[in-house]
Amino acid sequence: MSHCLNPNCLQPNPNTTIFCQKCGSKLVLQERYFALKILGQGSFDLTFQAFDTEKPSQPYCVIKQSFSQVQDPNAQEKSEELFKQEAIRLKHLGKHQQIPELLDYFIQDHHQYLVQEYIAGQNLAQNLARHGAFSETKIMNLLAHLLPLVGFIPLLSLSEINK
């Protein structure tokens, strides 16, 4: 099954279709990314597991779709500028082995898209639900893996935060 990327629809569709059977939206982004299922949903974004039809192995990837309700053209322009800055930072961060690589980013139909490497496995909430609270040893092990990563991520200066 494929998933419609229209946030007002999200209809599952057979893999053989290129347009959503419910709303008519195109199912393939940028002529290459094909959404398979929703991984998560927030107030202003959706995350899909997808695959890249342009590469011979058609690897899985993750599409993060952000949508805003901004009507003011100046605010929309500022939102798009901030999105591009975030994408550039993510591209830099993706050079670390513990951070999924940013594969692509673009704006289409007033929606902002980040395409990142797909990492199979459970997130922290799923792990806790399945195995319960971590022991002290497990917490120490987790921190030992996370702290070097925190050192890799540049901290925002006050001037960047106040922009």
TrEMBL record:
<keyword id="KW-0723">Serine/threonine-protein kinase</keyword>
<dbReference type="InterPro" id="IPR011009">
    <property type="entry name" value="Kinase-like_dom_sf"/>
</dbReference>
<keyword id="KW-0067">ATP-binding</keyword>
<dbReference type="InterPro" id="IPR000719">
    <property type="entry name" value="Prot_kinase_dom"/>
</dbReference>
<dbReference type="Pfam" id="PF00069">
    <property type="entry name" value="Pkinase"/>
</dbReference>
<keyword id="KW-0808">Transferase</keyword>
<keyword id="KW-0418">Kinase</keyword>
<dbReference type="GO" id="GO:0005524">
    <property type="term" value="F:ATP binding"/>
</dbReference>
<dbReference type="GO" id="GO:0004674">
    <property type="term" value="F:protein serine/threonine kinase activity"/>
</dbReference>
<keyword id="KW-0547">Nucleotide-binding</keyword>
<protein>
    <recommendedName>
        <fullName>non-specific serine/threonine protein kinase</fullName>
        <ecNumber>2.7.11.1</ecNumber>
    </recommendedName>
</protein>
<feature type="domain" description="Protein kinase">
    <location>
        <begin position="33"/>
        <end position="163"/>
    </location>
</feature>
